[in-house]
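Researcher: Here's a chain I'd like modeled. Treat it as a single chain, no partners, no ligands.
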Amino acid sequence: MPLPATVTAIPRSLARAEVYRTLKQWIVELTLAPEEVIRDHDLAERLGVSRTPVREALRQLEDEGLVVTSFHKWTKVAPADPAEVLQLYPVVAALEAAAVRLAASRLAADDLARLGKLNQALEQAIRRGDSAAATGCDMAFHALLVERSGNAEIAKLLGTLRPRIQRIELAYFGDQPMALQSVADHRAILAALRKGDADAACAAMQRNWAWQPTATPPSSSPPKE
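Model: Modeled as a single isolated chain. Structure tokens:
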């Protein structure tokens, strides 16, 4: 089970939350590859913690669909099935459209300006081929709208679904540039929000999740953003 060569030991007082955050990041970013066997004692040793917070983190990640287990046999990173994103996209689209509708009346001028700057940064990152920066700008754009919705349940559900999508997209679509159509969709969302047209903003958000990438089998070393 390959792990980063150097990992800072996690303070005991922060162990539970930090172990969960670290393992989730490794799974989403493909440091731990799909279907890779996970050994809690190896993880505990590398992170400098006991096995208890590791086991707790793995149980939580299993609940979120990022880890699978066979009782008393093995624990593995969940498979990355490209067909799964085509089932997840409509769910995320519906949740984010609902978030946009709720956020429409809550957005301040500063929020709209921030969304515009994030979309400009997204376009620039796409044009220069910086996938990591593009992903960060795209996630920040959507996260701001979800935050301004004020709906904790929507945020909670998306917090579970989006990492699953991100991991599969990295495994199968990492070499494909994020479509500039996403920038156009964001502009449409912003234009509708500036006009106070929640219906148009929701429709534009739905279109933003209509993209269906063409999957290619992951290499032995999956591409990373």
